[in-house]
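User: Hey, quick favor. My workstation is busy. Could you predict this chain's structure for me?
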Amino acid sequence: MKSIDKVYTNEIIIKNSRFITILYPIKNLDDIKKYLVDVRSLYPKANHYCYGYRFRDMEKASDDNEPSNTAGMPMLGVLQKEDVNNILAITVRYFGGIKLGAGGLVRAYAKGVKLALDKASLKELVKGYLVELIFPYNEQNKIVNLLKDMTILQKEFLEDVKYLVEVPKDKLQVLESYNYKIIKEVDIIK
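Assistant: No problem, here it is.
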């Protein structure tokens, strides 16, 4: 399975309608809500904001008032077929005045996602853990160096320092001498 580590955009025009597809890497469900709000503000006069996402073991699609199953599900279908995960695909449509019909919409939304994925640099996903790591302030430089190839998702500075980190399974042993707790198993970009 693969994913992306940055945003990719593609635009196509079909019978005067603009279809702008944006692919976002997602780390949590809050990312999805944020990106949907961001896209609506970036393209405020669009007619539709359809999306599909695969995140860990969850999938969802939205037609955003296009006819049922003509937008979100075809978009999600491309993500499934391409075997990618932790990706949100949003397609913004500006209606061009010519109706495409159900088949035309399905093809347009699927094509937008496929072309955006074709542009993307896909990265291999590996099994890992979401880990909470707690350590004293004087260990921070050592910890940052230890985690240099890992993704630190969150930092809290209280009595001690607390990091939320994505740790590949084969790297978990580097944390053995520290106070850590495995939150859950996750897929991580290699």
